[in-house]
Amino acid sequence: MMNIFHDIAEKYISKKLIAGLEWDIRIKNEVLSSGVAGFKDSHSKDRLEKDQVYRIFSMTKPIVSMACIRLIERNKIHLNSIAQEFIPSLKSLKVIQPGGTLERLKRPITIVDLLTHTGGFSYSFNIGCQVASFYKESNLLNEPTLSLKEFVEEISTLPLAFQPGEGWRYSVSIDVLGRILEVLEGKRLEDILKELIFDPLGMNETSFFLDQSKAERLMPMHGTNNFNELISLNQKDLVVVDIEKTHPSQGLNIHERGGGGLFSTVKDYQLFCKFLLDRNDKEGTPLVSSMMHNFMLKNRIQKHLLPLKLGPRLLDGYGWNLIGRVMIDNGQAMSLTNNGEFGWAGAAATFFWLDMEKNLSGVMMTQYAGRDLNLANEFRAASYSVI
User: Fold this and answer.
1) 334-387 per-position pLDDT tens digit
2) Distance (Å, rounded) from C-alpha 79 to C-alpha 322?
3) How far is it, in rounded angstroms, from Cα 351 to Cα 294?
4) How many other C-beta atoms are found inside a 10 Å radius of the C-beta of residue 195?
5) Can you say how many angstroms the Cα of residue 156 is from the centroid of all Cα atoms in its chain?
6) What domain range is 69 assigned to?
7) Which of 67, 249, 259, 364 has its Cβ near the most Cβ atoms within 10 Å?
8) If residue 353 lies in a helix (H) or strand (E), which one and from where to where?
9) What is residue 314's three-state secondary structure?
10) Which whole-number Å values give the CA distances from 14 to 39, 121, 151, 381, in the listed order?
11) Beta strands 360-365 and 20-27: pairing type?
């Protein structure tokens, strides 16, 4: 039965949808299936090996969100804290109206708005969103030279898609949150994550900075290097693309963002997943209280804002907790998972999922951007079929 995961991977590789894949799936932290398949890139015959380094893009978001939750437990910030108290430029934000006019905010954006993408921010690839064109014109997703502070200052000049709390839109809100953590702690986001997440969990290979000694282990990117069109359903050839100009791994212009930018490995991210399941650090000491652990995993999206929409896709059956998407109706989602299963993904086809009831955690990674793959759903469904 364990060959099912390798068979799924090989199906996608043989169809030239991905070059290779690495995965690790666990029950009660015991390996259910762990392996690699395919090649490091589409041009070579070098087999993909374990412990490659991957750009995890939006799988950065749950880590930054978790750092914020730890600071909430330390009473340094609160869910109802007001964002503009940390970033004054947010005071000038306005909401775009159907005719293009701008309206003042009815209330300020709060930390929980940022954690749950209900603040009104957006992304350039959100099809049908009235403010997406402003994000695309700004080209912020392809601009690595800005510091996180400068990035958020630019975001502050763009209109919001809706009044805070009155909608849901996948967005740059965790970038804003990351900058708030920097202001709060007086440190770079990298140092905050190292103190609150990486060091306690033993995630020694996760960072915004790719050490030169690890450069050869970085899996090349395939698909597109234009991150303004990520959720386009257009087919992209399986060719290696250079994204060093927009998402550099070396040099001074490091892509340090709250919503993306981390390099990691399957092994490291599985350590983060273990923590999300049992709330313990590498020494077995709880990092968050049982009350907060239970609270942070509950859906925060009101019924009238469902179903969630990501680009052209409806996320039927899903809500959003303080970490990422969460299953609230597996019948609506038509997905073989439990209600309460949660996780998220990255732009280059990285994915993780967790199930508290089954004590199940799964991580899979490749490097392909620009096509809507069903690979993650197949892997997740397979994990339930063998337990």
Assistant:
1) 888 899 999 999 999 999 999 999 999 999 999 998 777 899 999 999 999 998
2) 10
3) 22
4) 14
5) 22
6) 49-298+342-387
7) 364
8) strand 350-355
9) strand
10) 11, 39, 40, 21
11) antiparallel
Q: What type of residue is 342?
A: F
Longest Cα–Cα distance in the chain? 58
Window from 129-143, 246-260, 299-313 with minimum mean pLDDT: 246-260
Buried b (16+ CB within 10 A) or exposed e, 35-69: bbbbbbbbeeeeebeeebbbbbbbbbbbbbbbbbb
Number of domains the chain contains: 1
Q: Answer yes or no: is 9 within a domain.
A: no
What CATH number should be reported for the domain holding residue 360? 3.40.710.10
11, part of any domain: no
Q: Lowest-confidence range among 82-96, 215-229, 304-318? A: 215-229
Q: 90 in helix, strand or coil?
A: helix
CA atoms within 13 A on the CB side of 101: 3
**Do 49 and 19 form a contact (C-beta atoms < 8 A)?**
no
Look at residue 29 and tell me if it is in a domain. Answer: no
Long-range pairs, 353-356, Cβ under 8 A, ≥24: 353/380, 353/383, 354/273, 354/276, 354/277, 356/277, 356/297
Give the angle 221-6-242 at the CA atoms, nearest 5°. 5
Q: What are phi and psi of 318, to 5 degrees?
A: -105, 145
| 77 found inside a domain | yes
What is each CA distance from 132 to 136, 140, 322, in whole angstroms? 6, 12, 24
